[in-house]
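Teaching note: in complex prediction, the entire set of molecules is handled at once rather than each chain in isolation. The prompt given to students was simply: 'Predict the structure of this complex.' The entities are:
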Amino acid sequence: MWADAWLVAWRDLRIELRSRVLVAQVVPIAALTLLLFAFALGPGRRPLQWGAPGLFWVAIALAAVLAAARVQSVDAAPGARDALRAAGLDASGEFLGRTAVVAAELVVLEAVLLVGLVVLYGSRISDLGALVVSGLIGAIGVAAATALLSALCAGIGTESTLLPLLALPVLAPVVIAGTRTWQVGLGGKDLSVSGGALLSSDPWGALLVGFAAAYLGLGTLVAEQLAEVR
Amino acid sequence: MSVARTTTPRTAPWATDPGVARKRAARSPASQQGRPHEPIRGMRRARAALGLVAAGLIGLTAWLGLEVTPPDAVQGNLVRLLYVHPAVAWVALYVAFGIAVGASLLWLWPRTRHERFDRAAHAAMEVGTVYTALTLVTGSLWGRPTWGVWWVWDARLTSTALLFVMQLGYLAVRRVPGDADAVARRSAIAALAAALDVPIVHFSVDWWRTLHQGATVLNADLSPKVHGSMAWTLLLSFVAFTALFFWMLSMRVEQLGLEAREARDELARRLEERRREGAIVADSEPPLVGARLGAPDEED
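The expected output is the structure of the full assembly:
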């Protein structure tokens, strides 16, 4: 399974590096999201800094849907999936490989967006460690969920509308938990009504870890079932 | 000498197998309308009884909630929504989702795979979606006079709204055209993916501590905050709306079964028509080229 995961991840990453879809399309779209939020919230820096963590994670969720759909479309050519199956590729390995690719893309995207937050919104980084760790775990969780749901929608004809409908509500816990942890990391105002006591015990980090574990587990378990319908 | 093509009519295997034919005859709509089998009649009677019980309990809850129980010291008559909102939320969040997830798991597990589990998951999610909508509507009706707004960005409300969207997503997956097996598989996985939101909805009032109140009966201290006739009416409302849910679920499961059977019968009928057409066309076709070549005397 792990060998197949590595195989798929390496292959898809090479495809992404050669096609440059991530750099040429997904990153600009995510950056554009930051600009649009800025237009919507007005020219003042204060509301932007206040809302930066939430805007960041909303941008990540939207970009993840695009990235997962893109990764899934690599094998959309007629006969490609049959060829993968005939080659004896483990379905769980394929799922983990695709998750790794989406997660890697999201991590790159997070780095770019973080620079965007600092430059465009004037956000101040107060705890880089919290940002890195929560960004990484959040990216894995988001990647696992979107990879699973994009596989579920693959080849049905309406995946461009069905995938966001399924994925965006599912990603809401990551948006909430990621926002809370990034509020600390960016030194922004804490939006949590319950105050610092909850943040000090870091339930949001636990929620991010739980989310990633749940969707990695679910995706690995049902990958074989999904492979049969694609 | 010409050799005519063999035109023996090809019939469906079930048309010649007496056992299969008997089973099909027993399943035919005419048989269902006429004199249904004993187990089906028994099931329908049980469902009718359940429907009557549910209606009676709902009526009793309404009477107790509107006439017998007193208004609340703080909320006044608004408290009467307490006999609807928590009960429908309980069914939407736990009963319907529990059945949908359980049935989806049973369908996905190869040893227990049966289409009745797929139908149960489908029906539970559909009826559950109605209950979730009712939860949001009754909560909003209560929120307007209490909080002054129809909607607040409360953790419980928001997570329930997300759950509602997930249920709509599940139903959208259900409507994807295609092979029934593939639709069932995709839907079962969509149900499992959505089910991970249920614990978040449940614990949201504890995690976020926003406007929505915590558990009234099954709280952490297990000390109910409602007493007397109000407590009994609240308990009755849970039983009534749960009974109503199971009645609706049973109706919908049967309806889905009938739809599936109708689709199968229609497919078989069309296949049979095509086969007959094929046989007629074969009859009217000229003999095979090879046969003509082998019969020069007739050509002359």
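Point out the following to students. Chain A has a mean pLDDT of 83. DSSP finds ten helices and no strands in chain A.
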